[in-house]
Design a protein that fits this description.
Layout: H1 2-32, E1 48-52, E2 57-59, E3 62-71, E4 77-79, E5 84-88, E6 94-95, E7 100-101, E8 110-112, E9 117-125, H2 132-135, E10 137-146, E11 154-163, E12 171-173, E13 177-178
Parallel strand pairs: 7-12
Antiparallel strand pairs: 1-3, 2-3, 3-9, 4-8, 5-6, 5-10, 9-12, 9-13, 10-11
Length: about 190
């Protein structure tokens, strides 16, 4: 009898161990499953208010303006990459060549909650740095801005000297960055 009890006990332990191993492997599989964050739709132009902050200064014939993108919609949205920017006349005609992209900072996705703001830094070169025949200096009424990956644009009133002819790239923009891009300002 004692041998049967030991054999039965060992069979019970082996069965429990097999069950435990199965449960443990199931737990491991569940714990190692990757979490996928919900997808956030790209910010549409109609969901954004585009505006500019205080110019940040000038250096060597160039001045900088933070362009802001605020989510005025009812849902979070994502921005990735570079906006399209160009100078325009009061009638909306493009002046010169659109903004070039500064690629020093790599693009990354910025998710905006409703009311949140992201920014880019727009560099505007003084058009007096270019030969007038190549540039044809012209007063711009504003900036036409296409949010990243959008086909609809908005015009932000902002008077400055632009090139009226295509050729010199007098505007440059970096990729979208999180937060408000105004010196000495925090949205927290």
């Amino acid at each position: 009898m004692p041998i049967l009890r030991v054999a039965g006990l060992m069979a019970g332990v082996a069965g429990a161990a097999a069950l435990g191993a199965g449960a443990a492997s199931g737990a491991t599989a569940t714990a190692s499953a990757s979490y996928t964050a919900p997808k956030v739709a790209a910010c549409s132009t109609s969901q954004l208010r585009v505006w500019y902050g205080q110019p940040t200064g000038a250096a060597a014939g160039t001045f900088y303006i933070p362009l802001q993108f605020s989510d005025v919609g009812g849902a979070s949205c994502a921005l990735y990459g570079y906006p399209g920017v160009s100078g325009v006349t009061a009638g909306g005609a493009q002046l010169g060549t659109p903004a070039g992209w500064d690629s020093v900072i790599p693009p990354r996705t910025v998710v905006l909650a409703p009311g949140g703001t992201a920014h880019v830094l727009l560099r505007i070169t003084d058009v007096a740095n270019y030969p007038s025949t190549a540039c044809k200096p012209t007063g711009a009424y504003g900036l036409r801005v296409y949010p990243p990956n959008q086909k609809a644009s908005v015009v932000v009133p902002f008077a400055f000297e632009a090139c009226g002819k295509s050729g010199p790239t007098y505007l440059h923009v970096d990729p979208v960055n999180a937060g408000v891009g105004i010196p000495l300002y925090s949205n927290s």
